[in-house]
Structure formats: C-alpha cells, structure tokens
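Extended Data, panel c. Modelled sequence:
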Amino acid sequence: MPMAELRWITGGDAERPDVPELTLLVDADGSLGDRAVVRLGDLGHEGDDVLYVIATDAWTERDLSDGVVTVSVHAWDETLARLDLPADELPASIDGARLLASAPLPAEPDQLAAINDEATLVIPFDSESPADESIRQVLAHEEWPLIISNGRPPQE
C-alpha cells in the first residue's frame, strides 16, 4: 500500500511559479492517517483553487536533519471526531493531537530556502488518479489541493 510521499513541485504557487514547493502527496485509498489528511479537506475553507485547512484544525511540522527534510501532518482529536475518524487508532503526537502522516525527502542546498514556507501543499491521489496525474490536475487547476499551515498553533 502506498504511503505519503514528499516531492518538490514547481508551478504550484502562482506568485512564485519557478520556485520548487515542498508538496506532500497522500493516498486517499491508503492508511487511516493518509485518509484522515484527505478528509481534512471537508473542513477546508475555499480559496483560489485550493482548500485552506486552518491551524486550529490541523498543522504540519517540518524537520531538517542531515540533509533530509521530513514533513508531518498533525490534527487535534476534536478535529478527527468532527470527521468521524477514530483518533485512538492513530499515533499520539502531543496531548490531544494525533500524527496523521509523515514523509522524508533528501533536500539539496538550493531547495532549503523553501523549507521555512508558511504552509505545505498537500495533493491527494488515488487508484483512479495516481500521484503524477493528480499533480498534473492540480497544476492545470482541474483539482484543488489542500494548504495546511506549518507550525503547531498555541494551545488554549
């Protein structure tokens, strides 16, 4: 079964069309965590051909170690409950939150500038639309990706 995959995608940001963007690909037919990431889109707020997932629902974290960047997606237990997803079947992240998906990717020095972007582009794929086709559809504005904010929001 495919797992979440991290890639550099160029052309996903209209304001910076030549800048590679760190993009997480998640399998809509995959693990519970991947499916949960896709379902975050149900809570997304519509933007210009994207769905924004607000940080009070879910967030991404990025870690750079030894030339490898890892992106992980986290969601609050309450968010998962609103989506009728079993939070207790996902690994704990921090108190009250779960780790949904994580993927590593070697990072070249010229790509490292993109690592501190404010958000992560997330593109779902499935058996009918494999990852490369889903990327093409997003770049052609035929499908909407998710935009998930980087960094955990402060707890209340």
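Residues 44 and 53 are 5 Å apart (CA to CA). This feature is highlighted in the accompanying rendering.
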